[in-house]
Amino acid sequence: MRRPMVAGNWKMHGTRASVAELLKGLGSEALPGGVDVVVFPPSLHVERVIDGLQGASIEVGAQNCATQTGQGALTGEISSTQLADAGCKLVLVGHSERRQVIGESDEVLVRKFEAAQAGGLIPVLCIGETLAEREAGKTLEVVGRQLSSVIDALGIGAFARAVIAYEPVWAIGTGLTATPEQAQDVHAAIRAQLAVENSEVAQGVRLLYGGSVKAANAAELFGMPDIDGGLIGGASLNADEFGAICRAAGN
Ligand code: PEP
Protein backbone atom coordinates (compact mmCIF):
# COMPACT_ATOMS: atom_id res chain seq x y z
CA MET A 1 0.00 0.00 0.00
CA ARG A 2 1.55 3.30 -1.09
CA ARG A 3 1.18 6.27 1.23
CA PRO A 4 -0.24 9.27 -0.65
CA MET A 5 1.85 12.40 -1.03
CA VAL A 6 0.75 15.96 -1.74
CA ALA A 7 3.57 18.34 -2.62
CA GLY A 8 3.27 22.11 -3.04
CA ASN A 9 5.64 23.77 -5.49
CA TRP A 10 5.77 27.45 -4.61
CA LYS A 11 7.99 28.20 -7.63
CA MET A 12 9.51 31.72 -7.59
CA HIS A 13 6.80 33.06 -5.29
CA GLY A 14 7.10 34.48 -1.81
CA THR A 15 8.32 37.51 0.08
CA ARG A 16 9.08 37.38 3.80
CA ALA A 17 5.63 38.81 4.46
CA SER A 18 3.68 36.50 2.13
CA VAL A 19 5.60 33.44 3.34
CA ALA A 20 4.76 34.33 6.95
CA GLU A 21 1.09 34.62 5.98
CA LEU A 22 1.11 31.27 4.15
CA LEU A 23 2.84 29.54 7.07
CA LYS A 24 0.21 30.91 9.43
CA GLY A 25 -2.50 29.53 7.17
CA LEU A 26 -0.85 26.12 6.79
CA GLY A 27 -0.41 25.89 10.56
CA SER A 28 -4.13 26.14 11.06
CA GLU A 29 -5.11 23.55 8.41
CA ALA A 30 -6.39 20.15 9.56
CA LEU A 31 -4.13 17.84 7.57
CA PRO A 32 -4.89 14.13 7.21
CA GLY A 33 -2.61 11.79 9.15
CA GLY A 34 -2.18 9.25 6.36
CA VAL A 35 -0.72 11.62 3.77
CA ASP A 36 2.86 12.89 3.35
CA VAL A 37 2.60 16.65 2.87
CA VAL A 38 5.60 18.55 1.50
CA VAL A 39 6.17 22.14 0.43
CA PHE A 40 8.91 23.34 -1.89
CA PRO A 41 9.62 27.03 -1.23
CA PRO A 42 12.32 29.03 -3.03
CA SER A 43 15.70 28.13 -1.45
CA LEU A 44 15.90 31.65 -0.02
CA HIS A 45 13.00 30.82 2.30
CA VAL A 46 13.79 27.18 3.14
CA GLU A 47 15.08 27.79 6.67
CA ARG A 48 12.29 30.25 7.46
CA VAL A 49 9.72 27.68 6.29
CA ILE A 50 11.30 24.82 8.25
CA ASP A 51 11.25 26.97 11.40
CA GLY A 52 7.71 28.11 10.75
CA LEU A 53 6.38 24.58 10.22
CA GLN A 54 7.80 23.08 13.43
CA GLY A 55 5.18 20.67 14.74
CA ALA A 56 2.98 20.92 11.63
CA SER A 57 3.79 17.48 10.07
CA ILE A 58 4.81 19.11 6.79
CA GLU A 59 8.18 18.29 5.25
CA VAL A 60 10.17 20.84 3.29
CA GLY A 61 11.92 20.29 -0.02
CA ALA A 62 13.93 22.35 -2.48
CA GLN A 63 13.05 23.18 -6.07
CA ASN A 64 16.52 22.51 -7.48
CA CYS A 65 20.00 21.34 -6.52
CA ALA A 66 23.45 21.42 -8.07
CA THR A 67 24.88 18.57 -10.13
CA GLN A 68 27.60 18.27 -7.48
CA THR A 69 27.37 17.39 -3.81
CA GLY A 70 29.26 18.89 -0.88
CA GLN A 71 30.67 22.39 -1.06
CA GLY A 72 32.95 24.07 -3.55
CA ALA A 73 33.57 26.67 -6.20
CA LEU A 74 30.24 26.75 -8.07
CA THR A 75 28.88 30.27 -7.91
CA GLY A 76 25.14 30.59 -7.51
CA GLU A 77 24.47 26.90 -6.95
CA ILE A 78 23.25 25.10 -3.82
CA SER A 79 24.12 21.44 -3.30
CA SER A 80 21.91 18.65 -2.02
CA THR A 81 24.30 18.31 0.90
CA GLN A 82 23.69 21.92 1.90
CA LEU A 83 19.94 21.57 1.45
CA ALA A 84 19.88 18.42 3.59
CA ASP A 85 21.98 20.22 6.20
CA ALA A 86 19.36 23.01 6.25
CA GLY A 87 16.62 20.43 6.89
CA CYS A 88 15.27 19.67 3.41
CA LYS A 89 14.12 16.11 2.78
CA LEU A 90 13.28 16.14 -0.93
CA VAL A 91 14.15 18.04 -4.10
CA LEU A 92 12.38 18.55 -7.42
CA VAL A 93 14.38 17.37 -10.43
CA GLY A 94 13.38 18.13 -14.00
CA HIS A 95 10.39 20.42 -13.56
CA SER A 96 9.27 21.42 -17.06
CA GLU A 97 10.05 25.08 -16.33
CA ARG A 98 13.67 24.07 -15.74
CA ARG A 99 13.74 21.78 -18.76
CA GLN A 100 12.16 24.34 -21.09
CA VAL A 101 13.05 27.78 -19.75
CA ILE A 102 16.46 27.07 -18.20
CA GLY A 103 17.30 24.41 -20.80
CA GLU A 104 18.20 21.51 -18.51
CA SER A 105 18.78 18.33 -20.53
CA ASP A 106 18.08 14.74 -19.55
CA GLU A 107 21.86 14.32 -19.04
CA VAL A 108 22.06 17.23 -16.58
CA LEU A 109 18.95 15.99 -14.78
CA VAL A 110 20.42 12.52 -14.34
CA ARG A 111 23.38 14.15 -12.60
CA LYS A 112 21.06 16.20 -10.38
CA PHE A 113 19.02 13.10 -9.54
CA GLU A 114 22.19 11.26 -8.58
CA ALA A 115 23.54 14.23 -6.60
CA ALA A 116 20.21 14.55 -4.77
CA GLN A 117 20.38 10.99 -3.50
CA ALA A 118 24.11 11.19 -2.75
CA GLY A 119 23.44 14.26 -0.60
CA GLY A 120 20.66 12.55 1.33
CA LEU A 121 17.59 13.95 -0.45
CA ILE A 122 14.71 12.15 -2.15
CA PRO A 123 14.43 13.32 -5.76
CA VAL A 124 10.98 14.01 -7.21
CA LEU A 125 11.57 13.41 -10.92
CA CYS A 126 9.16 15.48 -13.04
CA ILE A 127 8.33 14.20 -16.50
CA GLY A 128 5.69 15.12 -19.04
CA GLU A 129 4.90 15.92 -22.65
CA THR A 130 4.10 19.20 -24.39
CA LEU A 131 0.79 19.82 -26.14
CA ALA A 132 2.42 19.32 -29.55
CA GLU A 133 3.85 16.00 -28.41
CA ARG A 134 0.47 14.85 -27.09
CA GLU A 135 -1.27 15.89 -30.28
CA ALA A 136 1.34 14.01 -32.29
CA GLY A 137 0.54 10.87 -30.27
CA LYS A 138 3.99 10.90 -28.65
CA THR A 139 3.06 11.17 -24.96
CA LEU A 140 4.24 7.73 -23.90
CA GLU A 141 7.35 7.94 -26.07
CA VAL A 142 8.40 11.27 -24.49
CA VAL A 143 7.63 10.28 -20.91
CA GLY A 144 9.26 6.88 -21.47
CA ARG A 145 12.43 8.52 -22.78
CA GLN A 146 12.63 10.95 -19.84
CA LEU A 147 12.25 8.02 -17.43
CA SER A 148 14.72 5.81 -19.31
CA SER A 149 17.42 8.46 -19.09
CA VAL A 150 17.53 7.92 -15.31
CA ILE A 151 16.98 4.14 -15.36
CA ASP A 152 19.72 3.62 -17.96
CA ALA A 153 22.24 5.79 -16.14
CA LEU A 154 21.55 4.94 -12.51
CA GLY A 155 19.66 1.64 -12.58
CA ILE A 156 16.15 0.79 -11.44
CA GLY A 157 17.34 0.68 -7.83
CA ALA A 158 17.52 4.48 -7.87
CA PHE A 159 13.71 4.54 -7.84
CA ALA A 160 13.52 2.71 -4.52
CA ARG A 161 14.24 6.14 -2.94
CA ALA A 162 12.51 8.51 -5.33
CA VAL A 163 9.14 9.91 -6.31
CA ILE A 164 7.95 10.51 -9.87
CA ALA A 165 5.62 13.35 -10.88
CA TYR A 166 3.81 13.11 -14.20
CA GLU A 167 3.13 16.68 -15.24
CA PRO A 168 1.81 17.25 -18.75
CA VAL A 169 3.37 20.58 -19.75
CA TRP A 170 0.10 21.75 -21.33
CA ALA A 171 -1.65 21.40 -17.96
CA ILE A 172 0.86 23.33 -15.84
CA GLY A 173 -0.46 26.72 -14.80
CA THR A 174 -2.97 26.74 -17.66
CA GLY A 175 -6.15 25.72 -15.86
CA LEU A 176 -6.31 22.69 -18.20
CA THR A 177 -6.17 19.42 -16.28
CA ALA A 178 -5.65 15.95 -17.72
CA THR A 179 -8.78 13.90 -17.22
CA PRO A 180 -8.39 11.23 -14.53
CA GLU A 181 -8.39 8.64 -17.33
CA GLN A 182 -5.68 10.44 -19.35
CA ALA A 183 -3.51 10.76 -16.24
CA GLN A 184 -4.14 7.17 -15.17
CA ASP A 185 -3.13 5.86 -18.63
CA VAL A 186 0.25 7.59 -18.39
CA HIS A 187 0.78 6.60 -14.74
CA ALA A 188 0.03 2.97 -15.60
CA ALA A 189 2.54 3.14 -18.46
CA ILE A 190 5.20 4.61 -16.16
CA ARG A 191 4.63 1.87 -13.61
CA ALA A 192 4.72 -0.79 -16.34
CA GLN A 193 8.02 0.57 -17.64
CA LEU A 194 9.51 0.37 -14.14
CA ALA A 195 8.04 -3.12 -13.65
CA VAL A 196 9.94 -4.46 -16.65
CA GLU A 197 13.09 -3.80 -14.60
CA ASN A 198 11.84 -4.59 -11.09
CA SER A 199 8.23 -5.17 -10.07
CA GLU A 200 8.82 -4.49 -6.38
CA VAL A 201 10.29 -1.06 -7.12
CA ALA A 202 7.45 -0.37 -9.58
CA GLN A 203 4.79 -1.21 -7.02
CA GLY A 204 6.46 0.84 -4.28
CA VAL A 205 7.24 4.09 -6.08
CA ARG A 206 4.79 6.95 -5.66
CA LEU A 207 3.53 8.54 -8.87
CA LEU A 208 2.14 12.04 -8.41
CA TYR A 209 0.02 13.89 -10.94
CA GLY A 210 0.66 17.60 -11.51
CA GLY A 211 -1.06 20.14 -13.71
CA SER A 212 -3.76 22.55 -12.51
CA VAL A 213 -4.85 20.37 -9.60
CA LYS A 214 -7.39 22.15 -7.38
CA ALA A 215 -9.59 21.12 -4.49
CA ALA A 216 -12.42 20.71 -7.00
CA ASN A 217 -10.69 18.07 -9.16
CA ALA A 218 -8.24 16.46 -6.71
CA ALA A 219 -10.45 13.67 -5.35
CA GLU A 220 -11.29 12.34 -8.81
CA LEU A 221 -7.63 12.32 -9.88
CA PHE A 222 -6.40 10.79 -6.62
CA GLY A 223 -9.08 8.10 -6.90
CA MET A 224 -7.31 6.49 -9.86
CA PRO A 225 -5.35 3.34 -9.03
CA ASP A 226 -1.89 4.54 -10.11
CA ILE A 227 -2.17 8.16 -8.95
CA ASP A 228 -0.65 8.40 -5.49
CA GLY A 229 -1.15 12.11 -4.90
CA GLY A 230 -0.27 15.38 -6.53
CA LEU A 231 2.36 18.01 -7.23
CA ILE A 232 0.53 21.29 -6.85
CA GLY A 233 1.69 24.65 -8.18
CA GLY A 234 -0.63 27.65 -8.06
CA ALA A 235 -3.11 26.14 -5.64
CA SER A 236 -0.36 25.46 -3.08
CA LEU A 237 -0.03 29.21 -2.48
CA ASN A 238 -3.44 29.26 -0.85
CA ALA A 239 -3.41 27.42 2.50
CA ASP A 240 -7.12 26.59 2.49
CA GLU A 241 -7.05 25.27 -1.07
CA PHE A 242 -3.87 23.29 -0.43
CA GLY A 243 -5.29 21.89 2.81
CA ALA A 244 -8.42 20.76 0.96
CA ILE A 245 -6.28 19.01 -1.68
CA CYS A 246 -4.34 17.23 1.09
CA ARG A 247 -7.61 16.10 2.67
CA ALA A 248 -8.78 14.80 -0.74
CA ALA A 249 -5.66 12.61 -0.83
CA GLY A 250 -6.51 11.27 2.61
CA ASN A 251 -9.95 10.02 1.64
C1 PEP B 1 3.72 22.72 -11.08
O1 PEP B 1 4.30 23.79 -11.22
O2 PEP B 1 4.36 21.71 -10.80
C2 PEP B 1 2.27 22.69 -11.29
C3 PEP B 1 1.67 21.53 -11.34
O3 PEP B 1 1.63 23.90 -11.41
P1 PEP B 1 0.04 24.17 -11.42
O4 PEP B 1 -0.57 23.32 -10.34
O5 PEP B 1 -0.10 25.63 -11.16
O6 PEP B 1 -0.46 23.76 -12.76
What does this structure look like?
With 251 residues, the protein is of the alpha/beta class. The protein has a single domain, classed as Aldolase class I (TIM Barrel, Alpha-Beta Barrel), CATH 3.20.20.70. Helix content is 44%, strand content 15%. The chain contains eleven helices and eight strands. It has helices at 16-27, 46-52, 80-86, 96-102, 106-118, 131-135, 139-154, 180-197, 199-204, 215-222, 239-250; strands at 5-9, 36-40, 59-62, 90-93, 122-127, 163-166, 206-210, 229-232. An eight-stranded parallel β-barrel has the order 1-2-3-4-5-6-7-8, surrounded by seven helices. Helix 1 links the parallel strand 1 (5-9) and strand 2 (36-40). The protein is globular, with a radius of gyration of 17 Å. The relative contact order is 0.16. The mean pLDDT is 97. The structure holds phosphoenolpyruvate. Residues 9, 11, 167, 172-173, 210-213, 231-235 line the site of phosphoenolpyruvate. The active site is at residues 95, 167. Pathway: Carbohydrate degradation; glycolysis; D-glyceraldehyde 3-phosphate from glycerone phosphate: step 1/1; Carbohydrate biosynthesis; gluconeogenesis; Carbohydrate metabolism; erythritol degradation. Keywords: Cytoplasm, Gluconeogenesis, Glycolysis, Isomerase. Belongs to the triosephosphate isomerase family.
